[in-house]
Amino acid sequence: MMNFLLSHLSLPVLSAAVLLASSPYVCADDGKEKDTDKPVTYEDHVFPILKKNCATCHGDGKQEAGLNLANYANTIKGSGGGEIVVAGRSSASRLIEVLTSTEDGERMPPDGDPLSPEVIELIKKWIDSGLRENAGSSVAEMRTLGFKATTPTDEAGPGAVPVNLSTFPSVTTLRPYPLLAIAASSRAPVVATSGYGEIKLFDPTTHSSYGAIPFPEGEPLVLTFSRSGRLLLAAGGKPVQSGSVVLFDVATGKRLASVGDEPDAIMAADISPDEKLVAIGCTSRLVKLFSTEDGSLKATIDKHTDWVTAVAFSPDGKYLATADRIGNIHIWDGKSGGVILPLSEHKKSVRALSWRSDSGVVASCSEDGTVVWWDVKDGWPLANRPNAHTDGVLDCQFGPNGELATCGRDGTVKIWSAEGNELKKFTITAEETAKSQLPPGVQLLPTRVAVASDGSTVLVGDTAGNLHSWKFP
């Protein structure tokens, strides 16, 4: 029964532990130590479960597929060189995947009733809290990130450029996979685009490839570079299954940290300018702020009443802007998450937020077709373009000189001046549309925009996974 398990042991070891799992075992506050205060350990909690349900096939006597779950060392080691538990990441642990599978022939144990949700949550908590062997053990070493935020000094120095990225096999999809996320470094000629299970890196001018970085979490729905240019944030996951944020070293492609452990793919995320906080927006309507250094949850914002679709730190780190699926926007304190003011103008889902480089203006775009430039001092809409794109605006991004790039469901890409006036409009050509090989009924649309670090080029992804570029006017 474990052959299927061992054939899928390609999950990487993630380097951050986020202690978000909760336990159902809560006692009354009678002055005694609560069960939730005690660490979940292999010896006290997990071994009895594995012994009862798995020892017949994976114990000291019989070890199907070479896997022995009868002792701590062998459970951690896994089998065939692949781990079945990943410290701090129950959502990336193959053991949890097979325990919760609904497919015949995959779920463990194969005979009898599946494990109860309470038991599975207990195993998850053991994994997420660091795979302790017993009450006197420390958490697994892989929880220590070794990641330290850097304090930005000046804006003059160049950012990181990828060099000699490792190679890996790409996943081939049956149909063209849309480009769902794009980001341009503000400090170097580097653009990141999303693929299925991977992130591709390009030179924005020549489109020459620097290589790619694997994203085994699933679909990267958000990409953004840190202010220093040395980090790339990727957020996403598997819809209705799992979601997380991963930080990569741009120069090497190395994974530095992973935060968030959501039950759904993360569609909104950003990293603070000092690289100490990651903000995520959730389909649970929450905004969460995590420490990048230890993975801890620093603040939770529950003001939104629908899915959070966009989050963005201001370049100076003073503010955090968040938006949701019914058009609400809020400005928060970028450190504490304290409320500052609401912004009210949109009637439908806000698709993106972008800050001007001076942190004085934030732009928003919506499915209602509107683009708004907001003065964050008092929330006043300095410019409002209600028909910026017919049928909806899909993305917006400021350039370094104050111009704003947008794209929409009308198939166009537009450049707006610092005063909010339309300067230029681009359209994907009919020839490019004919080459896209999209299924019948699927329109070739621009999906995401970014602006190159020198402000000379707007880069656009489309529903067929292509990357386009045009020069600024």
Describe the structure.
With 473 residues, this protein is mostly beta strands. 11% of the residues lie in helices and 32% in strands. A four-stranded antiparallel sheet has the order 1-2-3-4, with no helix packed on it. A four-stranded antiparallel sheet has the order 5-6-7-8, with no helix packed on it. Helix 2 crosses helix 5 (117-128). The longest helix has 17 residues, at 42-58. 48% of the residues are buried. The model is unreliable at 1-36 and 141-153 (pLDDT under 50).
What is this entry, summarized?
The protein is mainly beta and 473 residues long.
Proportion in β-strands: 25-35%
The residue ranges in which pLDDT falls below 50 over 5 or more consecutive positions are 1-36, 141-153
Query: What is Rg?
Result: 24 Å
Count of alpha/pi helices: 6
- Give a quick account of the main beta sheet: strands, pairing sense, barrel closure: 4 strands, antiparallel
Separation, N- and C-terminal Cα atoms: 62 Å
Query: Overall pLDDT, averaged?
Result: 83
Q: What is the number of strand segments? A: 27
Explain the layout of strands and helices.
Blueprint: H1 3-6, H2 42-58, H3 72-77, H4 94-99, H5 117-128, E1 182-184, E2 191-195, E3 198-202, E4 209-214, E5 219-225, E6 231-238, E7 242-249, E8 255-262, E9 268-271, E10 277-281, E11 287-291, E12 297-301, E13 308-313, E14 319-324, E15 329-333, E16 339-343, E17 350-355, E18 361-366, E19 371-375, E20 380-385, E21 393-398, E22 404-408, E23 412-416, E24 422-427, H6 430-435, E25 446-451, E26 457-462, E27 467-471
Antiparallel strand pairs: 1-2, 2-3, 3-4, 5-6, 6-7, 7-8, 9-10, 10-11, 11-12, 13-14, 14-15, 15-16, 17-18, 18-19, 19-20, 21-22, 22-23, 23-24, 25-26, 26-27
Helix pairs in contact: 2-5
